Amino acid sequence: MPVAQSTNRSMTAAAVLALLAVAPVALAQNAQIEEARAAAAAMARDAAARTSWSEDRGVAGFRDGHAFLSDATGDNTFSIGGYSLFRYYASARSGNPPLTSDNEFTQGFQISKFHIHATGNIGQPEMTYNVAMDFDSSGAAVLEDAWMRYQIAETPWGIRAGQFKPAIIREENVGEFDALAVERSQVALFFNPDVSQGVQVEHTTQQFQVSVALTDGFRSPVRSSTVNQPYDSVNEADYGVSVRGQWMFAGSDWSRFDHFSSFRSRSTYTGVIGAAVAHQSFGETGASAAIVSGSDTTYTLDVTTQGSGWNTMGAFIANINDTDGFIENKTYGVVLQGGYFVADQVELFARGEWLRLDPLVVTTADHNLRFLTMGANYFVIPDSHAVKLSADIVYALDATDGLITIPAGDTTSGLLGDADKGECDLRVQISVSF
């Protein structure tokens, strides 16, 4: 056999042996590479889910004006936010008794409210919660909202349970941060149902909303608030029932009515008609001491419209209180208001209102009270309610001492009460949401 041929065969055999020796290592390395690639891809997907600050689902981010935490699925979320209302008041009055000339002008600053809340969902997107606390102008902390809500999947039905404000009065269903003027109308403040404990069934379709609530009662012109009260408290009603219905006769976006102002960027016209009735009975159950008994009923009818850069709202409210052994107390109120954007960030507004107190109850003061309000809003961030500067002037066409106790005043509305007509109040507010 030639030497060259023998040498070639030896080299081929050696190469085969070397390949057989290296192959298992190469295969093992390839497997490790594939595993590493798969692990890296999984880590990238997980990191994307956990570090996204813009997607709807992520561990942390900023959405709808609030910071939030979430698991990767979005089934468990936690969001915290709030707002502050900082005001300057200047009140000019007649100085007639019981006032003196030294009381004719009063001015100063006030944190009208500092509000903080936590919201989110538990276990699934349909199970939501809200807990809110307010610090009022005196610095006192009050538990406002503390409820859970379940939206029945693929249906228009939901149920809310806990402490909340029953859906009754249009103005009160819009948060004070989203009010048109610096403060809600005197009529809304007078009839404000405030929060109560109970359950509320809610039905929402594209054009209709209905809310039915069974509660511990509601605040009324002659009944105190039931906020955070024990179930046997004398301040609570024996029962309270309220029903509110709304028909959106134009448009299809219910979120439009979370605010009164309508930016110029809102190109479509929309409108809603609402009506509600709330009834409560008191004094028959649970009291540890003898108290008066009777019933209390509130009715309301309202219309709200919005377009590109303008809004209007009109409401009628009535309350009839029938307390055993006392005169039946009937009060009525009417509010008309509207706003118009003269520039993309500047809105002018005006409001007129009439409040009729029962003349058989208020016998020594004006029982027909009329108020005029005019002012302006400046939205610091275009098309956003996050930071707003507002100013308005409220003028009382009648004496207000039948409505507002002198010298206690009403530091929510800014009116301090006057035995003569013509009280005039300047209100300037910076509102900030976070």
Write a structural description.
The structure is a single chain. The protein is mainly beta and 434 residues long. The protein has one domain (81-433): Porin (Beta Barrel), CATH 2.40.160.10. It is built from 2 helices and 18 strands. It has helices at 3-51, 186-191; strands spanning 60-63, 66-70, 77-92, 105-121, 127-136, 141-151, 157-164, 196-204, 208-215, 239-250, 270-282, 294-307, 310-323, 329-343, 346-356, 368-379, 387-396, 424-433. It has a 16-stranded antiparallel beta barrel with strand order 3-4-5-6-7-8-9-10-11-12-13-14-15-16-17-18. Strand 1 and strand 2 form a beta hairpin. The radius of gyration is 32 Å and the shape is globular. The protein starts with a helix and ends with a strand. The relative contact order is 0.11. The model is unreliable at 1-29 and 44-57 (pLDDT under 50).
